[in-house]
């Protein structure tokens, strides 16, 4: 009985061993690119890391992680490579090489740094920011007064691709000290 219990424990421990990678990992996609930005502090750069992981680069989940200079996570965005590069779904997804994925990740991690004062004004009397912004579709979760207050503070912001034809811009909320999406724009 004792031998059966020991055998069962050994099998259970082996099943929980996370150090052994799955068999597909050798053929899978595990890529990354890192870019430094000055966003939360002028004196110490933050990092933006774009990663891809999956059984293949064609099937990759991609993440964009913003970290402060101390390595603390600030913001995480996740999608699929297909949704970020082609959009929608297709029964026949073209293969993605390691080199193509590396180019995508390097470009994605190279976020745009700017100031909230550069965002479009939400005109008095306009029902939404999108109605106020001529040309491109803009949206915000904030009411007009809060949005215009954040814009007037001219806060540092980072903008990144959130879909094939859409972007999001983040600022550090002055009240909470946490990152928040100030605006999303695109198709």
Structure description:
- It is built from 5 helices and 9 strands.
- The longest helix is centred in the N-terminal third of the chain and has 15 residues.
- The strands form 2 sheets. Strands 5-7-8-9-6 form a 5-stranded antiparallel beta sheet.
- A hairpin with a 5-residue loop joins strand 3 and strand 4.
- The protein is flat, with a radius of gyration of 22 Å.
- The chain is of the alpha+beta class.
- The N terminus is likely disordered.
What secondary-structure arrangement, pairings included, does this model have?
Layout: H1 2-16, E1 29-37, E2 46-54, E3 61-67, E4 73-80, H2 81-85, H3 98-109, E5 112-115, H4 129-132, E6 138-139, H5 144-152, E7 156-163, E8 166-172, E9 179-186
Antiparallel strand pairs: 1-2, 2-3, 3-4, 5-7, 6-9, 7-8, 8-9
In short:
24% of the residues lie in helices and 33% in strands. By secondary structure, the chain is an alpha+beta fold.
Quick tags:
alpha+beta, 9 strands, 5-stranded antiparallel β-sheet, 4-stranded antiparallel β-sheet, flat, 187 residues, disordered N terminus
| Low-confidence regions | 1-26
* Structural Rg: 22 Å
* Shape estimate: flat
Distance between the termini: 65 Å
Fraction in helix: 10-25%
Provide the succession of SSEs: HEEEEHHEHEHEEE
Write down how many β-strands occur, each being a DSSP E stretch of 2 or more residues. Answer: 9
Structure classification:
alpha+beta
If strands are numbered along the chain, what order do they take across the biggest sheet? 5-7-8-9-6
Largest sheet: 5 strands, antiparallel
Number of helices, counting only DSSP H or I runs of 4 residues or more: 5
Mean pLDDT: 84
């Amino acid at each position: 009985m004792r031998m059966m219990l020991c055998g069962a424990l050994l099998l259970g421990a082996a099943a929980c061993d996370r150090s052994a990678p799955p068999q597909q990992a050798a053929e899978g996609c595990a890529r990354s690119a890192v870019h430094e930005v000055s966003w939360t502090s002028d004196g110490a750069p933050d990092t933006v890391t774009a990663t891809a992981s999956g059984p293949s680069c064609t099937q990759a989940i991609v993440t964009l992680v913003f970290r402060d200079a101390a390595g603390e996570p600030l913001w995480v965005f996740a999608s699929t490579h297909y949704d970020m590069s082609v959009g929608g779904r297709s029964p026949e997804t073209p293969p993605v090489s390691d080199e193509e994925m590396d180019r995508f990740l390097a470009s994605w991690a190279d976020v745009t740094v700017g100031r909230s004062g550069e965002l479009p004004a939400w005109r008095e009397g306009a029902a939404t920011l999108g109605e106020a912004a001529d040309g491109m579709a803009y949206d915000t979760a904030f009411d007009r007064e809060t949005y215009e207050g954040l814009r007037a503070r001219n806060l540092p912001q980072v903008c990144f691709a959130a879909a094939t034809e859409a972007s999001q811009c983040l600022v550090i909320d002055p009240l909470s000290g946490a990152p928040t999406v100030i605006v999303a724009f695109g198709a």
